[in-house]
């Protein structure tokens, strides 16, 4: 998966007087937790304050990735101030974790709180976070991973009470969240509780076992929600209207799932703020003809590693000139008549003759992908032609 998400600012709604995280508590107060408190204005900081997403892939990234943008924005908002990151891993009991957090973080502002390997109260019982355990602290980013979370962890016991004015990013990855993502249906993973965090801008439920996104999941989202990460699950179904009510949605990551089809009605119409869509590493064979209609801000699309066989004028022509990044590598695109619409865009019609230089991509575009042409040469079955260098004589079209 290419991480193309351009987080437009986890701290963009901070007031000018918004101060940096408080200094670290003492080691005695922290117990099994650790704390880093660094000057984020220094580029050689020892703490990776930009690690919003945790992935193992090493594939190329398009420009303006989350990591770069988030780091820059944090520095701008804090204006050279300090960044506090607290990590609590493998507490002996959940009660011990609760006591440490309540005591060590009492009346403190923390930029990022990470908890992992949280034990359940009883064996074979799923984990819920302690009741109101953060009420007397203020957290900007909360991350939990490698924990067997209950599907109602977001609201059961009001674990995020007190964070209405501060929490801007919430991650729960590798937490064995299984089945359907709904608002609060019995036996599912709930999004109930997110609506009580109006300043929340990003949610990351990646690396779980979600199979279905129900239309109710984001029907009452936080006002400022703009980034949704659902990659590396087992999604087969995303119901129509699932993201229609996320008014300010900018970035959606649905990569590394089991999707065979998508519909335009997943998103609002128009989707005025949608900038980035990642559907890579799925099983898509075709896109709806209206899929990119009414997406005036769309700049980045990743459809690599799917099963697309053609790129017809619809849906592509309406969005092609506004894209800055497109990755469609690893598909099975044919060099056929469906690509005729692209020639005049790449180069004026009279320059598509075989004797002229190959056309060039539009200025500022990074287009990655090719089509296959059947070869007449013995021993060779096809030839690959980059989409950005496509010419009329390369198309199998009479």
From TrEMBL:
The keyword Transmembrane does not apply. Pfam families: LRR_8. Residues 354-377 are annotated as: Disordered. Keywords: Leucine-rich repeat, Repeat, Signal. Transmembrane segments: none annotated. Residues 1-20 form the signal peptide. It comes from the Eukaryota. SUPFAM superfamilies: L domain-like. This is Uncharacterized protein.
């Amino acid at each position: 998966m290419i991480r193309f998400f351009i987080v437009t600012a986890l701290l963009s709604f901070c007031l000018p007087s918004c101060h940096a995280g408080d200094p670290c508590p003492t080691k005695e107060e922290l117990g099994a937790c650790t704390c880093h408190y660094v000057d984020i204005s220094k580029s050689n900081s020892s703490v990776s304050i930009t690690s919003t997403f945790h992935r193992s892939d090493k594939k190329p990234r398009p420009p303006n990735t989350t990591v770069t943008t988030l780091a820059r924005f944090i520095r701008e908002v804090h204006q050279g101030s300090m960044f506090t990151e607290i990590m609590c891993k493998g507490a002996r009991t959940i009660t011990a974790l609760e006591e440490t957090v309540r005591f060590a973080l009492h009346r403190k502002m923390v930029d990022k709180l990470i908890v992992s390997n949280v034990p359940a109260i009883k064996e074979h019982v799923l984990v819920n976070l302690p009741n109101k355990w953060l009420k007397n602290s203020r957290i900007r980013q909360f991350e939990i991973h490698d924990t067997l979370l209950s599907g109602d962890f977001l609201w059961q016991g009001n674990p995020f009470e007190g964070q209405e004015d501060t929490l801007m990013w919430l991650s729960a990855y590798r937490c064995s969240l299984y089945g359907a993502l709904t608002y609060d249906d019995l036996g599912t993973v709930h999004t109930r509780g997110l609506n009580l965090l109006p300043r929340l801008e990003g949610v990351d439920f990646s690396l779980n076992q979600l199979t279905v996104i129900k239309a109710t999941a984001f029907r009452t989202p936080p006002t400022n929600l703009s980034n949704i990460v659902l990659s590396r699950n087992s999604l087969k179904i995303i119901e129509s209207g699932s993201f229609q009510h996320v008014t300010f949605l900018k970035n959606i990551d649905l990569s590394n799932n089991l999707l065979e089809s998508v519909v335009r009605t997943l998103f609002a119409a128009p989707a005025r703020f949608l900038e980035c869509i990642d559907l890579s590493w799925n099983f898509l064979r075709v896109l709806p003809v209206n899929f990119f209609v009414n997406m005036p801000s769309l700049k980045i699309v990743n459809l690599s590693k799917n099963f697309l066989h053609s790129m017809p004028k619809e849906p592509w022509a309406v969005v092609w000139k506004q894209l800055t990044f497109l990755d469609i590598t690893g598909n099975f695109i044919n060099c056929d008549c469906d690509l005729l619409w692209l020639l005049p865009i790449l180069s004026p019609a009279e320059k598509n003759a075989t004797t002229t230089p190959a056309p060039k991509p539009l200025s500022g575009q990074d287009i990655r992908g090719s089509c296959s042409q059947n070869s007449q040469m013995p021993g060779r079955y096809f030839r690959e032609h980059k989409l950005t260098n496509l010419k009329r004589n390369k198309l199998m079209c009479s």
